[in-house]
């Protein structure tokens, strides 16, 4: 499939150019009197498609500012066109040079391929010869090639199917391996060898039938019809166009300044301010409209060679977000392409994948409207509308490290932070935060004495206890530490017990402390009174709080 798409893109890039390859160069980018590019398509049904291609310099008109949409396409024009879209012209020239070095071409003929003479054509001989060698042309064309004969839809299907290497059965193969999609009631009116090609191009979406379901294989293809086919290929991104000439986004503003109109185009990758060409054309549902109507619409924009807006098509109106759901977390990745996705690790340590709406915006004090600027680990608040991301706020977080000294159901306090200006020493509602280990994996919980890094929001700097904890990362968890000495006293202060050892060493005691006698039997904390002046063994957690006492 990837090979098919690549060949398809290369091939179709020249079909566009091929439409114009016999045309004079004067009218190459809508060059015409006033703002009308081609005077003979003003009310034509294919007007928007023709102007779209002309804006990309891919189709041209004539010196009299006409496009001549009903003009038939000839066989030679189609062959040259396919070779251009397939980017085969350079290869054709190189092949011709090699052939010239190998032999001298006689006046009576040209080089042959596999023993079969290649017909002479009025122009484009190198490209034509390469197309024959690659067997892009149906065999009967080569046998008696008429360069000026108008092509039928069946012939176009045959050439495109062979050139794109679509799934077409070999001659004599009746196994039915061709795609079934594209069976038309009049397909039997096409030559038998062309019928699998018609099915193949229909299945690939290259050509389709008419409103009555027929394909009309004998119908002569004209310039307007080819423009529509090419325009549909542009919709599929199968036509190669110059980089930066075809854009998509939503129009955030249209303003007039002394230099003329300026269009501001916003997309997931940024904001662009674009000058508008005086002969710009704007369409909605195939009907021409004013550029001012494009505001707050998703649009396709085509720029000319001077990067001025030349053609605009309104695709979808931007709607105001309804009731939104908010999710906070850290960015894991952003995927932009055919699918636009934001992968978020929420505050429950769950990875969540959200599609980005085409009009999603990225805001925040340090943010810019470019979702590629989001880095893994950035904390964001995401607003969802119907499951799609409409707004992402890049949060301005702060971080602080320390040792957990106090820990209750409501408050977490850090040791040694009290009184330090600008650094909070306690955090309320810490249990609502995400708790992870050093590898950012979910951790079971925080313990007193843990060395932690706290990521938090500070809505009003300078205010006390307004911080919102987003993440607590446990960077280390020390084991219990032994301390021995002579028991001097037991104190009670505000319901908290404290033990004093010799040299006035004082330690806070955990309410759930475990106390054992010299035989290892567990005793009540109050029984320690009889061990005053005895040597005891204290086991302290990382915060220096007594967790166990052994006599």
Automatic annotation (TrEMBL):
Keyword Protein biosynthesis set for record: no
Record carries keyword Repeat: yes
SLH domain mapped to chain residues: 33-96, 111-174, 181-244
Keywords: Repeat
Ranges of compositional bias, category Basic and acidic residues: 96-106
Pfam families: SLH
InterPro entries from the UniProt entry: Cell_Envelope_Struct_Comp, SLH_dom
Region Disordered, annotated ranges: 96-119
Entries under PANTHER family matching the protein: OUTER MEMBRANE PROTEIN ALPHA-RELATED, S-LAYER PROTEIN _ PEPTIDOGLYCAN ENDO-BETA-N-ACETYLGLUCOSAMINIDASE
Protein name as it appears in the record: S-layer domain-containing protein
Species of provenance: Desulfofundulus kuznetsovii (strain DSM 6115 / VKM B-1805 / 17)
